[in-house]
Fold:
Amino acid sequence: MSTYALIPGAGGDAWYWHRVQPILEAAGHRAVAVEIPGDDPAAGWEEYAKAVTDTLPPDPGELVVVGQSMGGFTAPVVAQRLGARHIVLVNAMIPRPGETGGAWWDNVGQGDAARAYAIEQGRDPDAEFDLREIFLHDVPADVTEQAMAGGKEQADTPFGQPWLLNAWPDVPTTVLTGADDRLFPADLQVRVARERLDLPATVLPGGHLIALGHPETVAAALLAA
Structure:
């Protein structure tokens, strides 16, 4: 049995993982969806990592740390501190030492990549940001309504803080990328994984919130890792 620490992205809502968690548990594993204090302006990267370590059981056993989107800054920190067996990044930000959450976007060219992908798809690259179009376009209607009714506003604090590690930890890492991620387009994620971790990215069907839109696909990839 493995323990999967499931770290959400911006806002820090553990609900993001509610469609994947029962699939992992049905396969005989322990899955812990972590609530991150993303809406707390007093909390930053250190507090995010502590939220994960405090939520996990005292003896997690074979630990797999999974980071979604912004959770890519937290997952490797937790993995190093707890001696994890594996890291899995899901449409995740992959930081460099000293890089802040705010600097990451320009450093990897996210804006240009998202704009180019919008044009490629025939979407207006200058349209006002729309949560449904960018994040929920491939999520079932009932789940979309739940997502729109809840969620937490992400505080700015971690965007001004540098990543906590001096190097990527010596832990096997898998990079999962949504083929139709409109925030972090697949081409961008593949390039960043190669440049920063010298790793390939496995491209799966789905958008940025892939665990909501394609939970079976995500769970199968996590079990394979």
